[in-house]
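Work Package 4 report. The design task specified in the project plan requires that, given a folded chain encoded as structure tokens, an amino acid be chosen for each position. We show below one input record used in the internal validation round.
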């Protein structure tokens, strides 16, 4: 039988500033990693790809998400599956829209993000 389950609140999870205007928090399961991200107006876009499946969910705010050749207008509640190895990035939210908050789910667990979830093993 598994041990006790520990609950966390995103506000208590250690945050890291990925780059100016982007803050990220992480939480892991056995085979996936979830990040809670804040994206500020003026943030630098960072086109990238990775060998992980990714589900992008916008919780608050508005922004444009670039996935391959597509540009998707995202508002609260938007959910997008980003295929592995496809170049993608989020445009900075417009100043009038304020900070955007999104959650990303990656599978399998991203070892390059393992440092963000070390608090779960303490």
């Amino acid at each position: 039988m598994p041990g006790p389950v520990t609950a966390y609140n995103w506000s208590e999870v250690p945050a890291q500033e990925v780059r100016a205007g982007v803050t990220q928090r992480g939480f892991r399961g056995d085979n996936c990693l979830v990040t809670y991200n804040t994206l500020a107006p003026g943030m630098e876009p960072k086109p990238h790809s990775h060998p992980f499946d990714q589900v992008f969910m916008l919780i608050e705010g508005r922004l444009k998400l670039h996935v391959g050749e597509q540009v998707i207008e995202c508002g609260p509640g938007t959910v997008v599956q980003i295929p592995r190895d496809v170049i993608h990035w989020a445009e900075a939210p417009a100043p009038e829209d304020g900070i955007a908050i999104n959650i990303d789910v990656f599978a399998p667990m991203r070892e390059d993000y393992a440092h963000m979830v070390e608090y779960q093993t303490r």
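Residues 21 and 119 are 23 Å apart (CA to CA). Validation will be extended to a larger panel in the next phase.
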